[in-house]
Amino acid sequence: MSTVAREIKINSRIEASPLYNHDLAPVDAAHRTWSTYNYAALWVSMSVNILTYMLAASLIQGGMDWKQAVLTVFIGNTIVLAPMLLNSHPGAKYGIPFPVLARASFGLLGANVAAVLRALVACGWFGIQSWIGGEAINTLLATLWPSWANNPRGVAICFVIFWGINLIVVLKGIEYIRFLQGVSAPILLGVGLLLLGWAYKSAGGFGPMLSAPSKFQSTSDFLKFLIPALNGTIGFWSTVSLNIPDFTRFARDQRGQLIGQAIALPTTMTLYSFIGVAVTSATVVIYGSAIWDPVQLLSRFHSPVAVVISLLAILLATLNVNIGANVVSPANDFSNLWPKRISFKLGGMITCFMGVAMMPWKLLANHRTFIFGWLGGYAAVLGPVAGIMICDYFIIRRKELLVDDLYLRGSRYEYAAGFNWRAIAALVVGSGVALIGLVVSPVRFLYDYSWFVGFIVAFTAYFMLMPKTGLAASAAR
Questions:
Q1: How far, in Å, CA of 104 to CA of 97, rounded?
Q2: pLDDT digits over 421-445, tens only?
Q3: Can you give the residue ranges of every domain in the chain?
Q4: Region of 197 on the Ramachandran plot (φ > 0 left; ψ -120 to 50 alpha; else beta)
Q5: CA distance linking residue 231 with residue 379, whole number of Å
Q6: Which pTM value belongs to this model?
Q7: In this predicted structure, what is the pLDDT of residue 227?
Q8: Which residues contact residue 77 at a Cβ distance below 8 angstroms, ignoring those fewer than 6 apart?
Q9: Which one of 73, 336, 407, 439 is CB 3.0 to 4.6 Å from 99, fit for a cystine?
Q10: What superfamily would CATH give domain 19-230+251-361?
């Protein structure tokens, strides 16, 4: 049988499998066109967003000075770059998305556990971005129509409006907004520079605007905030560190995706975070307290033209980032639950409704719920997933996978009725150890280090539970 005939036969088997649909299929060589530039541009467009600004600004509100806040963001993003690049490798090598890659370690059906956990976090981020967009619409209406400010349900109504816009885009298809991807980063960068210029002028220069001192009276007090803050900073992108294969599956080669990400992620996050840090530090000088939400800050501007232009820019960029960063992954993850019935579009609709159910207004209530509750909480779950997947691919299988078997029941990755209970056990142990610090005060440090603890414990548990012989050789046959 010729090689071409054999490939056609194999492909027909895969396409008939209940584990297959077009969105989850391996990307062929002809469509792997992304270069170093594409990955650098991807991270610039994803990093320059309102939540990057708010992450850095929340550190100032929590008591850090500007140097401490910027350094925390830089260190956190440099650390998370490691699992990001490790999980990027199988995507670029085999052209498979995250939920399909998870089948190798969690099993053909067990992968849904990892995929749904990742999807639920994305739903939360979708809701948070939608709430920010709603706030922007509410402020915009209050600027153009002052009486709107007296509406007690104004923010909630505007949240529903912006959520509806996102839903329409999902129904139309991702390509409907692709033309915006190239301009979202410059738009938000422009808003950031506008705020920076205002802060510079209002505070009287960089000296006064960066003069807000650290509120911590001792090294011990500083470390009590630094550790969970650093953990939250890592948790910020721990989501994409899992589903990065969704993007690297289109890579032309390993070198291009590696260099593009390594250059753009930590540098862009740090530079845009500096804007958030500098402006928020200036609000301490100007208003006497730290204002970490740029939409609320814009509402205090006296120039209606500047407010309207800035808010429209925020709305446009937030819509783009929300669709690109918070719909692509969960749509694929929900599709993985039932590939023949749940399309990418239906998965996106599920994401929209789940985003509301997760009550984003509570997640953004203050810096403590945002950093310690939201970012630290889900880091305790996603850290173990990353540990298991990295251990499986690099240590157990030595970077060798049987791509066809990832789509076929009864294959190498069937395990026990589709579930690798060793991976599930490692996930439970890793998450449990990290989360126990949330309820047992003497070991609170376990939760403060939730991503690190979950990753290390799950990695170790999975390595100890999995057989060490036959897997790599079998995958290479």
A1: 12
A2: 999 999 999 999 999 988 888 998 8
A3: 19-230+251-361
A4: alpha
A5: 8
A6: 0.83
A7: 86
A8: 233, 234, 236, 237, 265, 266, 269, 270
A9: 336
A10: Hydantoin permease (1.10.4160.10)
